[in-house]
Amino acid sequence: MSLATTDVIRPEAGIAGRFLMGFRKVPGSVIVAITILALVAFATIFARGILPYDFDQMDLRARLAPPVPLEGSTLAHPLGTDKLGRDVLSRLLIATQTSILLSLLGTIIGAVIGTFLGFVAAHFGRWVDEGISTLVDFQAAMPWFIIALAVLAFMGNSMVVFLFLLGMYGWERYARITRGLVLAAREEGYARAVHALGGRSWTIYLRHVLPNILSPLIVQLTISFPETILFETSLSFLGLGIRPPMTSLGQMLGDGRDYLVSAWWLAVIPGIMIFLTTLSMSIFGDWLRTRFDPSLQD
Amino acid sequence: MTVTYALWKVLRAVLTMWLVVTFVFFVLRLTGDPVAQLLPDDVDQNTIDYYRRLWGLDQPILVQYWRYFEALFHGDLGISFRDNQDALELVLGRLPKTALLGFTALGFAIAFGLPLGVIAALKKDSLIDRIVMSVAVFGFSMPNFFLGILLILGFSLYLRVLPSSGSDTWLHLIMPALTLSSTMGAQIARYTRSAMIDVMNKPYMRTADSKGAGTTRRLYLHALPNASIPIITIIGLKIGELIGWAVVVENVFAWPGIGRLLTHAVAMRDLAVVQCILMMIALTMVTANLTVDLIYGWLDPRVRVGAARERLQ
Amino acid sequence: MTLSLLAQTPSRAPEPEPAHEAFLKLDKVERAFVYRRGTLTRPAKSFNAVDGVSLSLRKGETMAVVGESGCGKSTLGRLAAGLMRPTGGYVDLDGISFGELSADGWRDSRTQVQVIFQDAAGSLDPRLPVETQVREPLDLHNAGTREERRRRTEEMLMAVKLGRHLWKAVPGELSGGQQQRVVIARALILEPGLLICDEPVSALDVSIQAQIISLLADMRDRLDLTMIFISHDLAVVRQIADRVAVMYLGQIVEEGPVERLFSAPMHPYTKALLAAVPVPDPAVKRSKQLLMGDPPSPHAPPAGCRFHTRCPIATERCGTDMPEMRSFGSVHVACHHAEERS
Lengths: 298, 313, 342
Prior knowledge:
The complex is a heterotrimer. Chain A is mainly alpha-helical. Chain A has eleven helices and no strands. In chain A, helix 9 (201-237) runs antiparallel to helix 11. Chain A is elongated and about 75 Å long. Chain B is mainly alpha-helical. Chain B has a domain at 97-312: MetI-like (MetI-like fold), CATH 1.10.3720.10. Helices cover 80% and strands 0% of the residues of chain B. Chain B has helices at residues 3-30, 34-38, 45-54, 61-73, 87-122, 127-141, 144-158, 170-200, 203-211, 213-252, 258-267, 271-299, 305-312. Chains in contact: A-B, A-C.
């Protein structure tokens, strides 16, 4: 590692100091992305606390009111109302909370399972590896979206099943990445050295291998999180994921689609929300990737 | 590429196919009773039993499984509960529409994505590069059903230029195809860009550069075919995703293809049709993966597709 | 484990006491490597990187193993450390036979023997501060309380003379010599009885080499280490070894006390190696005894004496009969013509 004359990092700074020094220059787009993500996170956590209205509270006198700048709107419902007079802003907050939480949970489940299986395959090798690799191929060959569609339709409205399907979406990518990285890391000098010092395999994995392979995994997280959001919203849009009385961003969009002529905002507003979230996540993920590994060209 | 390698890959593909079919079979049957769903609520038990027997659903599940495979080998994929038509026929009947949509979308995706990716690579790190890549990021962050809705809002409802549903004229094709092509086009642009950058950094390209611009232009025509290998790979690997998106898009635009058939069948609990569609989709995906594997094996036996997949992800 | 050994001021006894028990004993050790996998129709092809080596070291002795690349000295080092299992013969360290250990037993044995390699940076985790890495062996074997481990680590870091301001640095911020000091500290913190050094200074600048060698000698004296020092550089070996073993194509061809070997080598290969060592004084005339030809491939060693294809005094007998290891006082040589002066 060469130390440029302009950025001497003092060794006493320790790990934390080194990390913070890395934030010297962040592109504007990334800052915007992070801001949006922070707002989304805020909305997700505090949705119920900041609701102006109950999300299913009906106000039949103010049905299909448009959002604020347009005529016919009221300040009482800044983003308008839907066919039952329910406040769009409130519904948006709750829907965001549902979508984001579900997608986050699903992504994490997939990541944990995939990474774990990747480790297991790399560690035990031979038949275990073959078996897990076959599972990986199998998962990759399955049109998971379509299968989820079928399962959800046949199984009815079950949150557990939905979460399971979300979680299982994409685990195989983590497994593949982890397996490859662990196999390579095991051959690294320091892994062998710690083994020669008397370290147990799992100690080596947790202490030395995992931290060193964390960055590609985190990058993968930032890729799969938006994909999971799209997965969930697509299914809900088709009426299969989150169904009334619950609401999610996809569900709102699906509902709103029927009112395109009369109340286009019912579909557009949740759509923009989805778009902004996935876009910000992608931008953030791209930036993370260039930070972690400047040698990658894209 | 050795014969062993090819045979092994084919075997793997067949095994995967079988696993998928089995998985789908059991999942669908174990998740609810199709008969009760299908018939009106006030029907009596005798009728329910009759239909159950008619469709062979009263047998233990393993018997059903065996029967299913038996029928499969005779080319019989069951009868649609709803229409009483042969499921396979039904599905194949809708295939052309989906194929039309799919290939058009693929065409758009390549037509837009490829040149954009090349331009971005050639002008790497310039403003143009950044703009193109931003467009690409926008492209695959945008949920395609939302894009479809926006297009409908803009072109059908506001400008009244394009029809929003159905598939009668070529005008009907534009919006759905555009919508479907957006995500894939963006991905193609990104991967083309990085593949081109990789190729351009190779030593032989730089030597050519120093010899003069005319030669380089010709070499770009060599570089591009080299770079197209990863592009073919993504298309192959992402076909499954494409099919998934197609289902959604067909629903948004009421395009009468397999995707729409699937949603209807699923709503109707039409087992045979759902299974048939799932099998065909799985077959397409497995074949696509296998083809990519074999192409890679042929081009360079040392390069495992797994490594390429990892890089692409 | 007491820390008193480190605190002692070093003073090495001029002659090591002749203990009759061998501390480390290698008996006709072999190690085969497969270089072509077997198929259904053809058996796998392997060769012996180490082919029938017998050595014994007393406690506190330092044995250097020298030879060209590919002679098997690194493999021998690994075998002596128990990092590899011999495919023939056995390795015995202070009563522990490496071949018979269970996984747990093997892990415990790591407190008795440690290895230092050439690539110091490669042996260290690029992410962790060096202080943590030096302490790690104590954590792995659960030695002492947290406070004791912290103190021990400090003592060790001071003993290898690594500046305090570098203790929290990561390996990438240290120079090659500093990294090697860290590696030495980490290897010795459990106070093993045997230390194997595999080309520890070959990747370092010459000026740093002397410092590290002197550090190793110092630590050896303080901790009463038995050491195997592997190198292709004879000049370096002279500073630290008591005895030297010369290896060629998997076998030991000569072995004896260091000064004896340097002043009166008996095996033609040893003579050739010595002749190749640059001597700074241009006035010294030496007879050039260059080796003829290229070293044969270890996969297909020559028949008879393996060195005979490059030996200036080879005779017909050398091409057919493998020479036995014979003793001439404290020196052991494997050559048909050892007695002859040249």
